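Need tokens for this chain, all 92 residues.
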Amino acid sequence: MRHAKPGEVNYDAIDAFTAAHVAAGVIMAMSGVKASTALALAVGWELVEPVLKTEVPGLFPHARIDSSVNKLTDTAAVMVGWWGAKRLSRGR
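Here are the structure tokens for all 92 residues:
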């Protein structure tokens, strides 16, 4: 599987799946997952994802390997979702 190129999904920092990563963070926070666990899961996913895209590309609508910037943003998006959900749940 090849890496995403400029203009393709999975290349830019923010793409069609950024909201899904934020949502994952919200779901984890609402489920009582600790921040450290949410971060570990987000990083773990970003490490496993390229292997899955190579081995079973049919599982993904865009099986191109994420750029480094996209991986970092995806991880940050999970934590933004987690943090935002925690803040809102505390009424802040």
